[in-house]
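seq as requested:
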Amino acid sequence: MTTRNKALHGAGLGLRRALLGPLEDADLSAVAFMEVAPENWINVGGALGRKFAQHAEARPMLLHGLSLSIGGPAPLDEDFLLQVRNFMHQHNAPVYSEHLSYCSDDGHLYDLMPIPFTEEAVNYVATRIARTQDIIGQKIALENVSYYAAPGQEMSELEFINAIISAADCNLLLDVNNIYVNSINHNYDPLEFLAGLPGERIVYGHIAGHYNEAEDLIVDTHGADIIPTVWELLKLAYQKFGVFPTLLERDFNFPPIAELLLEVEQITSIQQTFQADDEVRKSA
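struct tokens:
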């Protein structure tokens, strides 16, 4: 059984403060939903808070956290999670997601660090996810992250992700670009990786650009256009799992807003093609 929210569909755009001005006069008809990091908006008032509320009233606003540090050694910040829960209720946010990584101990590291792919880590992280879900009051989604080292590895990345999702009974935020980035950096087949994921757990997806540091090193930056190979991987994901809501991530180096929205429209166009093919198959 799929875990997808029927009210959530189409193509989305990450709402960044640098985009607030350019978006004011833009045609946002292609943007079915938006996503923000709650850390950047909780308790924000004034003009910024009003602009955020306007966007949250116009379309579903998904929360994608940066600082929960689900795999970190320090205790969960339960006070923060209560703030997230209240923020979700305030703005009717249907989804709270986080990264399958850690970013803090006694203080924040300001980077997403890889959790060791071990059975011990599976049990530890699953317990923390379960507690998070108890506080939030619903299942959360964990994103497959890009990583550049695998300390203490005892299982594959794919085995680790599947074990976490199963043990924690949580959902998946499928980042297509991260699959491609990791496949280059760690020399694995992205199609085999994609096929091994629990498609029924996908709530929505991410697609983004990256930076080629070297032939065998790609950095996940969210600061460039999406390359053709990643678009093709998104198509294969739709073919394998059916069409799921998909968000364009762009964090900096923004093009003119019309160009940015063309990538959102490209997501929509690909989704419509696969949905039309599904309708043809069903009527055959």
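The chain has one domain: 11-283.
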